[in-house]
Specification:
3-methyladenine DNA Glycosylase II, Chain A, domain 3; elongated; 3 domains; alpha/beta; 3-stranded parallel β-sheet; Alpha-Beta Plaits; 4-stranded parallel β-sheet; 15 helices
C-alpha cells in the first residue's frame, strides 16, 4: 500500500465546519463530519487551495524549519524564482543571493538556473518528436498528482523530466561534494518554497526514487530574516551568485516555462479550477493542435503559492521587471540531456477514485450510487458535508455516510413522521368521540 505524505494539515480546533474548503477542493478530498473538516489523505494533492480559501485559517502547511539545517556541515540555499518577486524595487538578484549567504548559508544555487537547463531539455525532447502531443509540463507537483488521480489517460503526455528544484539540488550537491571533498550526506540542499506541494514532492517524489532536496522551508519563514540580512550586503558584493537569465526568472510566473520552449503553439493556465478545465479539454482531444501545455495550480504561477507573502500579481510584475536586466538565458545543456534531469521511473495511475478494484463490484456500486443520487435533490449545496450530491452518493455506497446526511432527505422523512403522527392523533380523537356515550 502506498504511503501518503502530506504538507497540508488541518487544525480541528480552528475549524468551524463551514464547507468552504469542501466546495473548492479539486479532488474532493475534504468532508465535514461532526461539525469538523477532515482530509482524505489518499486524495489530497497538497495544492494548498484549502489553505487559500479557509476563512478561519484552519488549514496550514507543515514545512521544515531553518533550525533543522544544523545537522549539515555545508548548507546550500535553493531559492525559487518566486522569491525574487517578494521584494520591492529589486534590480539585481545578487542582493537576495548575498543576503542568503549573510543569513548563514554556505552556498547558493538558483533554481532559476536549473529551470533554464530544463527548458533546454524540453526543447530537445520536443524537437525529437517522440512525445505525445500536447506535452504537459511536469514542473508543478500538485498538477502532476492531480493528473495521477483524476486524469490518468493523460500521464503519457507528461514531460518525463524532473522539476527544476530537483535538478538544482542534484547539481549543487554534486558540485559541492567534488569541490569540498565532503560526503553528500554532509551537504544539505535547502529549498525556499512558495507552496506546500513542493514539500510533499521532496518527501514523496514522483518520477524518481529519491530526492536530493534535504529540507523545504517556506518563503514566509525566510523572508523576515532575509530582509534584515539583505540590508547588510555591501554594494560591492561579489557578483558571481546570480547565474540565471530572463528565461529562468520567468519560470516564477505563469507562462514563463511555456514561452521558454520557443514554440508558438502553447497554452499556459494557472489556478486549479482553470487547470482542471484544460485537462478536461485535453481528455476530450480538443487541444491536439498544441505542442506544449504549462499548468500551474496556483494563480499567476509559483508567485501565487500560499507560502509567499506578496500579492501574486504584484510579484509577477516584479519578476518581469527583474528579467529585463538579465540576458535571455545563461545556462545550456548542449546536445544531450543528462540522466540526472530525466525521470528514472514511471508515474503510475493512483486509483483513489475507483469504487472497487474488482470491476464487477465497481459496476454494482456505481449502479447503487445512481439510485442514491436519484433520491437526492441535485442541489450540490454541501450542507451534508460532501462537495456534491454525487460525492454524497459515493460516500453512502462506500459506507462513510447515510442518505439522511442530506438535510432535504432528512426533512422529508421528518415531515412524513410528523404527518403520520398527526393522522394518528386525528384517528385517536375520532375513536374517542365515537366511544363517548
Amino acid at each position: 500500500m502506498e504511503e501518503y505524505v502530506h504538507s497540508v494539515t488541518l487544525d480541528p480546533d480552528a475549524c468551524r465546519g463551514c464547507i468552504t474548503c469542501v466546495k473548492r477542493c479539486p479532488t474532493e478530498a475534504i468532508r465535514v463530519r461532526g461539525g469538523k473538516a477532515r482530509i482524505l489523505k489518499e486524495r489530497c494533492i497538497d495544492c494548498g487551495e484549502c489553505i487559500r480559501v479557509c476563512p478561519h485559517h484552519a488549514k496550514r502547511a507543515v514545512t521544515d524549519h531553518l533550525a533543522d539545517w544544523n545537522r549539515f556541515r555545508y548548507k546550500i540555499a535553493l531559492p525559487a524564482p518566486a522569491l525574487y518577486g517578494q521584494f520591492n524595487n529589486l534590480d539585481d538578484a545578487e542582493v537576495v543571493l548575498e543576503g542568503l549567504r549573510a543569513m548563514g548559508f554556505d552556498g547558493v544555487y538558483e533554481v532559476a538556473a536549473a529551470a533554464e537547463l530544463v527548458s533546454d531539455a524540453t526543447r530537445l525532447l520536443l524537437s525529437q518528436g517522440a512525445l505525445e502531443r500536447p506535452v504537459i509540463s511536469s514542473a508543478c507537483p500538485a498538477v502532476l498528482r492531480l493528473i495521477r488521480v483524476r486524469f490518468p489517460e493523460l500521464l503519457d503526455n507528461v514531460l518525463p523530466l524532473v522539476a527544476p528544484v530537483e535538478l538544482a539540488a542534484r547539481i549543487a550537491k554534486r558540485q559541492a561534494a567534488r569541490r569540498l571533498g565532503l560526503d553528500p550526506g554532509e551537504i544539505g540542499c535547502i529549498f525556499i518554497s512558495p507552496c506546500p506541494a513542493k514539500m510533499t514532492a521532496a518527501k514523496n517524489p514522483l518520477g524518481t526514487g529519491r530526492s536530493d532536496i534535504d529540507l523545504v522551508v517556506s518563503v514566509s519563514e525566510v523572508y523576515p530574516a532575509l530582509c534584515a540580512a539583505m540590508k547588510t550586503v555591501p554594494e560591492a558584493a561579489d557578483q558571481d551568485l546570480a547565474t540565471a537569465g530572463r528565461t529562468g526568472i520567468g519560470w516564477g510566473r505563469s507562462g514563463g516555462e511555456a514561452a521558454a520552449t520557443l514554440h508558438e503553439r502553447y497554452l499556459a493556465a494557472d489556478g486549479i479550477e482553470n487547470v482542471i478545465r484544460v485537462l478536461e479539454d485535453m481528455e476530450d482531444e480538443k487541444l491536439r493542435g498544441l505542442d506544449f501545455v504549462e499548468l500551474n495550480a496556483c494563480s499567476s504561477g509559483c508567485v501565487g503559492g500560499v507560502l509567499n507573502i506578496e500579492n501574486p500579481y504584484v510579484a509577477a510584475v516584479r519578476l518581469k521587471r527583474l528579467g529585463r536586466y538579465r540576458p535571455v538565458s545563461c545556462n545550456h545543456l548542449g546536445d544531450s540531456i543528462p540522466p540526472e534531469a530525466k525521470w528514472d521511473r514511471e508515474v503510475d495511475y493512483a486509483p483513489v477514485m475507483q469504487l472497487d478494484a474488482n470491476p464487477f463490484r465497481a459496476m454494482e456500486l456505481l449502479e447503487q450510487m445512481g439510485e442514491v443520487e436519484e433520491r437526492l435533490r441535485g442541489l450540490d449545496c454541501g450542507s451534508c458535508g460532501a462537495p456534491s450530491c454525487h460525492a454524497l452518493a459515493e460516500d453512502v455506497v462506500r459506507g462513510y455516510a447515510v442518505e439522511d446526511s442530506c438535510i432535504y432527505v432528512l426533512q422529508e422523512k421528518l415531515d412524513a413522521v410528523m404527518r403520520s403522527m398527526l393522522e394518528q392523533h386525528d384517528l385517536n380523537a375520532k375513536t374517542k368521540e365515537g366511544a363517548a356515550p
